[in-house]
Amino acid sequence: MFIPKDSRRDFLRVAASSPLLLPLLNPGGRTQADETRAKNDRPRLGLIGAGGQGSHDSRQASQFGDFLAICDVDRSHAEKAKADSRIGKGKADACGDYRAVLDRKDIDAVIIGTPDHWHTKICIEAMKAGKDVYCEKPLTLTIDEGKKLGQVAKQTGRVVQVGTQQRSDHNLVFLLAVALVRSGRIGKIKRVTAAIGGAPSGGPFPKEAPPAELNWDMWLGQAPKVDYIKQRCHSEFRWWLEYSGGKLTDWGAHHVDIGQWGIGMENSGPTTIEVEKSVLPVEYKGGYPTVDNRYNTATEFLVEATFPNGVVMHIRHDTDNGVTFEGTGGRIFVTRDRIDVSGGAVSALYKDPVPESILVALRKGKRIDSHMGNFFECARDRSTPVSDVWTHHRALTTCHLANIAIRLGGRKLTWDPAKEEIVGDSEANAWQSRTQRAGYEISV
């Protein structure tokens, strides 16, 4: 649906549900799910991390394959997914140790829906075990983990799709926005804003005994051994830097990714990171939180990342959630329910469509009707999915650098995207990795 907003300039608004988008971006024909209808052609799957997001991903994956095994360190999660009519169907094996899934020769691919600090280790071991992987975002806890993942993906040749579904779901409005930017519809890009929302503050929380169905030590994995606090676990883990990066890696994994994709920096990175504003809910010393019973990720932030092509990206907690591209000839704002395009250089899509060559290049030559479908199609023909390890690592590097700068008091960082190192700041550069608890180290 097109809605005129300002008669003094061209303006185009397309809702994500608009029938104009799908014919434009994904012409008809068989869907990706149609390709896996035959029982003998369906991949055999394992689910590792069966909480809310892992189960959601697995219900989508069930269109394409069949689950033989389900793993979660919380027994109640594993049993619930086993009983799910679209996942385990009451037949899949349930276990508490992911290695039991990876050891199985009859499993072709795994869905990883664990908390963030487990993603890299399981993903690397899955690739080494000969499995293709669909892993939730953010794929890494540190910059160093992203380097290791890229190395193993190249060595093994396994297909890995990252769960940054904005690249190929939501009726492809983000793909359209990126195509418009890269085809010059709003001129030379000067600035990008990734508005990702703030994080909550909370605590102090009481320490207590972990529930009987939860293997708390294994849930902690590489992170430091601490007493169980309910709010550290499951749906609230993202507000603790020990296990995640707060909103900067949660929504940053989506919107910073789209921003770098749009400006052609998906295989590069920023040259500088500057913190204009940040609020941490607890005191930090030497990069570590000094309180262990409160959320500790940044609640507010405004970070400026400058890229080698001169484009400045603002990553901020306020303003409407979405990505804004500003160029010499107009502006594009895109979020999951719509895309707004303004500026005199913009022509309505039905009069002047985006060249198919640009869309094909962004889709890596694939038709796309779902993010999960893209994963299974690439697993069949051994091609690279739309959200691959290497470009995701580059987008997350920007997010991780922002967190490093914030936790070190807001200092400016200079980054060499070719060498992938922080220049002239050994303390900050050391935060590319973290100490991993004995028994849970990541090995390549």
Report on the architecture of this protein.
This protein folds into two domains: 135 residues, NAD(P)-binding Rossmann-like Domain (Rossmann fold); 235 residues, 2-Layer Sandwich (Dihydrodipicolinate Reductase, domain 2). The chain is an alpha/beta fold. Helix 3 links the parallel strand 3 and strand 4. It is 29% helix and 19% strand. The strands form three sheets. The chain has a ten-stranded mixed sheet.
- Tell me what the CATH architecture of the largest domain is: 2-Layer Sandwich
CATH topology of the largest domain: Dihydrodipicolinate Reductase, domain 2
Going by CATH, the homologous superfamily of the largest domain would be Dihydrodipicolinate Reductase, domain 2
Number of strands: 18
| Rg value | 22 Å
Which structural class do you get from the secondary structure elements? alpha/beta
Instruction: Tell me the distance between the termini.
Output: 50 Å
Domain count, please report it: 2
Secondary structure topology:
Blueprint: E1 11-15, H1 21-25, E2 44-48, H2 52-61, E3 66-71, H3 75-83, E4 93-95, H4 98-102, E5 109-112, H5 116-128, E6 132-135, H6 143-156, E7 160-162, H7 173-182, E8 189-195, H8 216-220, H9 247-250, H10 252-262, E9 272-279, E10 284-285, E11 288-289, E12 300-306, E13 312-316, E14 322-327, E15 330-335, E16 338-342, H11 356-362, H12 371-381, H13 389-407, E17 413-416, E18 421-422, H14 426-430
Parallel strand pairs: 2-3, 2-5, 3-4, 5-6, 6-7, 8-13
Antiparallel strand pairs: 1-16, 8-14, 9-12, 9-17, 10-11, 12-13, 14-15, 15-16, 17-18
